Amino acid sequence: SALNGGAVLIAGKSAAEIVSTTFEANSAGSCGGGLATSSPTPVKLTGPVKFSQNRAEDGGSGGAFCSMNTLENSLVCNPDLVKKPFMIDVQDLPGGAAGSGKLTLENNYASSGGGALFVKCIIPGGATKDMGGATPVGDGFYPAKGLARFAFSGNTAGYGSNTATLPQELVLHEPKMVQFQYRPGEPITTKLHISDSFGQQVKMDGTDRLPVTVSARICIGSCESMVAGQGEVFNSANEIDSDGLCDVGVQNKVLVWPASQSTVSKRAVRTYQPLLTLQHAVSAPLQGVTMDPVQLNISRLPCNDDEQFLQASASATGVCEACLEAEYIIDPDQSQCLECPTGGICNGSTVQDFLLETQDDGSKLNLTILWEIIPFNVVASDTEEDRARLIECPAGYLLVRGDPLNDLRPQDDQCAKCPATYYSTRIASWNEIGQPLVDWKLADALTGDKCEDCEPGAVCTGGRSVEPKPGFYSGAPAAARRRVLHNRTRPESSRWEPEPHSNIDVGVFGWWSTGALWESSSAVRGRAGRKNGRRAAAAAGTVQVFRCPADACLGNGQCADGRTGPVCGLCKQGYAMAQERCEPCAEDVGTTIALGAIVGLVVVSVGYYMAAWRVFFTSTLHERNLEEKKRIAEGGEEEEDHRFILVKLCESRGWETLAKRISVYHRWFILNTKTLRGMAGGNEAKKDNLPIQGLMKILIGFYQVLSSFMTTFPIKWPEEQENAMKFTKILAFDVVAVPGPSCVVAQFSYQQKLLMYTMVPPAVLIALVCPLTLCMVLGHFRHGGWDKHLKYEAVYANTWQMAVFFLFLYYPTVSVASLKSFSCQELGAEGNLLQADFSVACPIDNPASFIFLYSATVAVLYPIGIPVGLYFAMRSYGIPQMAAALRRQAICASLISTYKRHTSSSEMEHLTNYLGKGPGDDEKSQLRFKKRCRTLFKNMDEDGSGTLSAEEIAHQLSKLDMAKIEIRALEKMMMTYDTDLTGELSMEEFEPMMADLLATSSKFDGLETWDQVAVNETQMRLLFSHDWMQQEEAYHRLQTKMVREGEKQQLVDKIGVEIQKSRQTMHDKALEADSLSKSVLRNRLLFLADQLINKGIISVPQLSWDGSGGEKEDLARLHVGFLFKNYEVTKWQFEILEMWRKLLTTSVLVFFYKGSILQLAGGFFLMFFFLVLTMRMRPFADVRLEKMQIWALLVLCITLFYGVILNADQAVAEANGTVPVETDMGTAVSLIILSFQMSVLFLPFATIVGESRFNPFNIWYNYQELRMEAIDRAKEEAQEEAEQMKNGVSPDGAGPPPGQGGSGSTDDPKGQSPASSKNSLDAGSGSKKSLDVRTKTPPLEGSTDGSGAGVGASRNGQRSAARTATPPPEETEAENGTPPKGKGNGSNGSGNGSNAAPPKGKGNGSNAAP
After folding, report:
1. Rounded to an integer, what distance in angstroms lies between the CA atom of residue 309 and that of residue 329?
2. Helix, strand or coil, per DSSP, at residue 18
């Protein structure tokens, strides 16, 4: 054993070579247990060299090999170590194989560092550093230069089991975990160790420790500074453990922080050093190496909230120290721990924001209070400190705080509870204006003078307790208080769970109140954004009261039977909501559901078949007729057996008697069915047919609106009214609202019910389209086209009809379901709840929720989309265009009729018919015309005066069998041509009048359609330039009157000037008409017609959909006629207005002042508005529908006015603290209202019976009518026989005596007999009696040139002559006084003669009003 180099020591500059040698079991006391060298020449190891079990003991290093090659006077390694690792040069044996040189180091030991190799220096470089920091590879060999290798195994040491150097530096053990911020009083947590040049942690083997310590110094600035105020303020020595680690924190070295105190404005201020230096240094050189200290800049953390900074003196260092539990501290770095106030609860840090209230059961309830930190003047020390002062107490308490002028004890602040018989729902705030709930002394607060007196109808036990007496409902004490005070809120998606009845307080007056207004202002501020109104109610200081639904709240603290929840608005288990009432369900819900499912399935199946599939599987009358014709065409003779199937079945079984009875009943049923169908034929039937479809629409619409009154106007309706409304709810197609089915869906959530209601329309429409789809598919594959199936037209029409009827029927129900998601009620502590289901939070408060988004979608799709869709459906069928066309046709007929009435008369038309054709363009025809005029003039001039008076013309017309002659009409016509103003016409005046009359009568025959007039410029110009105001006629009349009365000639001339101006105006209009194009003239004429209608000069009658629009109208009526065919043509869109009326009444009114008198008044005025609108517009084509609609609206107005009275009575009773009492008078009024409501139901049936042929009155009336017709017919026949006998004609119809008649040639102007001419005239005039064939009136010369023939006109304006011996049937009818259907009579061509009424839809005669 040696100090250095246990086997070999190489000193000085010696060079050594060791060849194939083993160093084993050598030891040294300082360095190099096997070999040590200080020579600058590397030790050459040739061949395999091995160091095994060598030791460096007693703190020695380098168990196998030690290199002590350093720079002079330094411990820094010699640069020679850069070239050869550890000054070792491993070489192969001369001539040996490559890699034969190898150094093996195994099982060597060092007490300090380097179990195998050690350099006794620091900062080695090059190959030594690389080997020292390298990681073994493969079998532990380190690659050296060339192929030489080092092999290590089993070496041990204090540090560096294989390689090591001298200790080099003191370093932080875990740099990332170093703490740079400290709170005074916390232990220093720094961990350090000493490392060698290879970064290995220096330590001794086993339990031995390094012979040095590490200091922890706290300094202001530099620790070595000698400047005043800087330098060391704290120092401690810390040992290094056996692992070489120095953990300062384990040794509990507490950090102190220097601080200084001063007084600023009577307030003590403590100042802290912002940064300190924490320095760690090794106490002495280790193995001769002196290491640099580790310095950290640390900053200060403030003391914890429940700590104070405690220092021995004003300028000494200090630490943070915890306060007691019964204390509080305001600023841990500046103030000291303070005594807790009397009314507060402290936790050593703050004064808690709650107080504990003892309940009746002994439990503690936390109530929120507020404290504020404010400056407080300490009189004893004349300093100012911050103290906690009470600024807010919860509802039910007064704030007690000393007089601000003598406020010496902040510790006495407290909340004093209101005594019994008083309450307070307001928060007591120190900052409130006037401080109404603040007392200066506790004794004053306990009197309760500043609390509220207990409200009537409530029991106050002190504090905020307001327990309602019977008559009020309070949901807060049971449910809301627990949620508010214990911070438990109901999830928005959860359903309300009803409380037991012992916790529900309800009153007899039907109100619901909340007393949950005791929340602190901080709690309210935290929910300021919520729409709950609780803070507003708290500020008001009153108990919130909410109205319960009708009949929901009873007395004695109970809800009505079957009700529970907020405002008793929910139904208990076993009950279901139906028509805003909780109806009991059967105990066996499963049986109810099963029975309901069976009945519903049967009803739906039968209804579905009848509505959708019946038309597909049954034959229509048209189809049966086609089949019959086909059978006959194929040679079939045997008629098909159409007997009822039950009759055939009974006969086949031999039950003849039963078959006969069934046959009788079946025939009776078919007969009555046909009768009803005939009366309900609508516009396709006769005029007096009963519009059953329109009556049923009004009936259904009435009861749909009436049944909604229970939900729209939630007041206490009389029992009779409620029962009627419940019964009629089925007409709204709301089966779920009926007791029974409502029990089935009672378990559904509101969202599920909403989906169920709103999914019905698409489901039904899809079901209705299924037959049409099948029909189209069969038509495509079997008949060669999608629309080629025999049933296609019928199924297509039926699909439209059923779809439109379903939308009409279901529209109010789906509209209500779509919109009620937006009707909510604010219930104080319970929150904003949905009125349709008080267990659901209002969707409006959560616009992102499914219910809100879905409801908003269906609210647009159904309430708005259905009317808009039906409107565009009617437009797609061209209803507006057809209505406009029919109105134009009516305007055209009225214009022509009025024009003919202005320019002619029936009397004058008789003359023109008698006269024949007007003057032509050639001279010959003009001479003939003048000759006929002279002949006619002479025949009428009975007195031979050379002038004709109106009486003479009338006498002549009477000879022509014109029964009714108006002298005034003749005078009016003569006035225009009476130029000498004598009142009679001379030959010179008569001739131009007849020429003008013939010219005018030839322009229009009265049967023109608008389409014909619109392309005839001549007719349009005549109508446009006509003097519709009859100014010239008025001037003529005035001028004639003035002449007769002997007025001055100057005035007469002045009137003449006006006449000329009027004529000039008409002439200008004629010129303007000539200058206009056809299209412009057409538009100007329509505009003129509208002006004339507004002025009352012409009128357009009410138009109905009578099929005059052709196939297009028939198709529209067949498909969507349900919507418009009962209305007048120009009011075709009125059904959409009716749908809006139902929407407003059933769905929209619910959002405005629900249950109040204002809501009822609004409903009344809305219904009254539609009543006035209906009476003003008169939209119905049938007066019976109009009367029923007016009566239905009037009954609804009466019902709503009755509701206003009921609501007012209830309000008066509640104001007086009583309950409305039902009287006999009230019951009688209710029954009268009910009778009005039921009258609407029976009105259609009464009308049906009243107008049916089974009505005895109708039977008697028809009998009397037939009897009178038979009597009149007998009289006419007798009169005709007498006239024939008088004229020499035999009654058997033989011709006249010889020489009294002849047919004459139609080409010879002198060849026609008078009888022929007069018969022709009668055929044109439409008179009921034939003219006397032997009249004294001589024949008009030249009247048989064709102009004297009958002038009955067909619809296209072509005249039909009556000159042949065998006239056609139409002309024969005309001769007998009965105009043919659809033909014109006389020159007016309006479908009637002077005494005949016009047929429906045709033009008007000269004596008929338009």
Report:
1. 11
2. strand
Report the alpha-carbon distance of residue 325 to residue 839 in Å, rounded: 45
Count how many Cα atoms sit within 13 Å of the Cα of residue 243 in the half-sphere of its side chain: 6
Tokens of 161: 């089991």
Kindly report the backbone phi and psi dihedral angles of residue 41, in degrees, each rounded to the nearest multiple of 5, phi listed first: -100, 130
For residue 61, the number of C-alpha atoms closer than 13 Å in the C-beta half-sphere is: 23
> Do residues 1288 and 1297 lie in contact, with contact meaning Cβ atoms separated by under 8 Å?
yes
Q: Which of 985, 992, 987 is nearest to 970 (CA)?
A: 985
Read off the amino acid at residue 132: G
Q: Alpha-carbon Rg of the chain, whole angstroms? A: 60
Summarised one tens digit per residue, pLDDT across range 1332-1369 is 333 333 333 333 333 333 333 333 333 333 333 333 33
- Cβ–Cβ under 8 Å, residues 468 and 510: no
Q: Quick count: other Cβ atoms within 10 Å of Cβ 835?
A: 21
| pLDDT tens, position by position, 163-207 | 999 999 999 999 999 999 999 988 988 999 999 999 999 999 988
Q: What are phi and psi of 1279, to 5 degrees?
A: -65, -40
User: What is the C-alpha to C-alpha distance for residues 256 and 154, in angstroms, rounded to an integer?
Assistant: 49
**Residue 249: DSSP 8-state:** G
Find out whether 84 and 67 touch, Cβ atoms under 8 Å: no
Q: From CA 594, how far away is CA 585, in angstroms rounded?
A: 14
Q: In the prediction, which pLDDT does 380 show? A: 65
Tell me how far apart the alpha carbons of residues 1204 and 1227 are, in angstroms, rounded to a whole number: 16
Written in H, E and C, the secondary structure of 32-82 is: CCCEEECCCCCEEEECEEEEECCEECCCCECCCEEECCECCCCCEECHHHH
- Range list of H helices, 680-718: 692-707, 709-712
Q: What is the mean pLDDT of residues 771-792?
A: 88
pLDDT tens-digit map of 591-608: 767 777 788 788 888 888
Place of tokens 């619910």: 1150
Q: Is 1224 exposed, middle or buried (0-12, 13-18, 19+ CB in 10 A)?
A: exposed
Q: Residue 541 is which amino acid? A: G
Report the C-alpha gap between 240 and 515 in whole angstroms: 70
| Rounded CA separation 814/324 (Å) | 68
Q: Which residues contact 1102 (CB under 8 A, 6 or more apart)?
A: 1128, 1178, 1181
Cβ(409)–Cβ(402) below 8 Å: yes
Q: Which two tokens stand for residue 201?
A: 């942690």
Distance (Å, rounded) from C-alpha 529 to C-alpha 964? 87
Q: Are 273 and 257 in contact (CB under 8 A)?
A: yes
- Which residue in 482, 539, 552 sits closest to 512, CA to CA? 552
- The structure tokens 């309430």 sit at 863
CB-CB contact of 320 with 185 (8 Å): yes
**Measured CA distances, 1145 to 729, 1059, 1197 (Å):** 15, 60, 12
Q: How confident is the model at residue 1395 (pLDDT cuts 50, 70, 90)?
A: very low
Q: How many CB atoms are located within 10 Å of the residue 137 CB?
A: 9
User: Residue 40: how many CB atoms within 10 A of its CB?
Assistant: 15
Structure tokens at 689: 């047919």
How much is the pTM?
Answer: 0.56
Distances (CA, A) of 848 to 726, 806, 842: 36, 33, 12
- 149-153 and 141-143 as β-strands: parallel, antiparallel, unpaired? antiparallel
Residues 507 and 1218: their CA atoms lie apart, in Å, by: 12
